Amino acid sequence: MKQSTNKNSLLDRFLNSIERAGNKLPDPAVLFLILMLLTWLFSALLSPIDFNELDPRTGEKLYIQNLLTGERIAAFLSRMIPTFINFPPLGVVLLAMLGVGVAEYSGFINAGLKYLLGFTPKSLLTPILVLVAIVSHTAADAGYVLVIPLGGVIFYAAGRHPLAGIAATFAGVSGGFSANFIPSAIDPLLQSFTQSAAQILDPGIQLNPLNNIFFTGLSSLVVIGVAWYLTDRVIEPRLLRTNPVDENLTDVPRMDELGPKEKKGFKLASLVLVLGLLGLVAWAYPLDSSLRAPDGEITSFAAPLMQSIVPLIFLVFWIPGILYGFVAGTYTSSGDVIASMSKAMGSMAQYIVMAFFCALFIDAFSQSNIGSMTALKGAAFLQSLQLPSQVTVVGIVFLSAFVNLLVGSASAKWALISPIFVPMLMQLGISPDLTQAAYRVGDSVSNIITPLLPYFPLVVIFCQRYVKNTGIGTLVSLMLPYTMYLLVIWTAFLLIYWTLGIPLGLQSSYEYTGF
């Protein structure tokens, strides 16, 4: 027992030091402003240097772009509004929160949570939440704006620390981004870049869009197991010692018994929700459905269904929320509905400010090519080491995890480095399928500790609902154990998977023998 206490004390001191250091950073909005100014400065200092790297996307030399020229500054000012308005998470978050706000303030979500907690054993709450978080990948970015805040609400309603629920779901949504047993749009997207990169060496090679689906499916069990253990044994006990929940919280669901009107409202709203989802399935099922892509695919980014995920989330919560509110008596007029939506937007004010500076920084960082140059230099260094195949694959996992701290988009990053990684490993006899699987592991595990993740500031806001002094350092210290454990265990799982020869996916292989 004393040894366990000492271990907890050592871990607490380590994570507390990270939390204190991180929380000494400026407000996230100010931090993004400072990072943007530093990007400008370093872009000017590095732009004269010839790094002798070719951009694999164009075949031309890659240079750091000086953002402090008159032309670049004029372009920055002229694009400021579209850069902010077109910041991908902004519209996703605000539209989804309009619907979620109605469902929350009417009491519909509260009622649903009470039913869920009524038949879910408290001991299984964590793995079930992580499983839901993993499945949410299928709906693009829905997990960030829907599942993560619900993780906090569910844990709080169950008498557990809400930040532990947020951490567990964040680990499932983002840390386990490549763990899913349900095909999603990211599968064919990454495969398309992998195939293009492989055709540099073998023009006739063809890869299946689901070439990693077996591996990502079984990886779900790894992510659930790691997140379950860490949340219940490490994260929540530490939170109870160091980050108590603020007293006198308002607008957070309680575990009171549902009254007759509330039960009636929930059953009626749930029935409408189920009928609506069944209608959506019936609409999307035919091969010539207008919700499908022109080629008949339902999970491709070109499919109107995939492009409509966020509006559908809005309707899924908005319509049942309104119906529940009027039946249960929490709404008496249309003004109450609008008031709920306004209240939801009010809670997003701080996020909108952060999103403005975050959008400007990410745009500047992308324009500067600093992240791209870092990725290319890292890949070239790994190639120069000429390590054994297994060590090289592990190196790709770790390098991808590091580059992910600088270049957030999974597709943009893979478009940049796949023309280096894939042909390089093909020459070592390693298939593109395995290279892509290694990349997906590294790309996932470090999402949850980088403030450059567009949704990272939003998760901070979710945490501040329960612990007002939550900062970037608090969230990083919460998520760092998940990153460390997932990086080691998931990489080991990939190596064991490879050793056992279990298929990675459809029409996949481990070896490349095309020479």
TrEMBL record:
- The portions of this protein that span the membrane are 29-49, 84-103, 115-136, 142-159, 166-186, 213-231, 265-285, 305-327, 348-367, 387-407, 414-432, 444-463, 475-500
* Signal peptide region: none
- Lineage top rank: taxon: Bacteria
* Alphabetized InterPro entries for the sequence: AbgT (IPR004697)
Protein name, please?
Answer: p-Aminobenzoyl-glutamate transporter family
Alphabetically ordered keywords of this record: Membrane, Transmembrane, Transmembrane helix
One of its GO biological process terms is: p-aminobenzoyl-glutamate transmembrane transport
Give one GO molecular function term. Answer: secondary active p-aminobenzoyl-glutamate transmembrane transporter activity
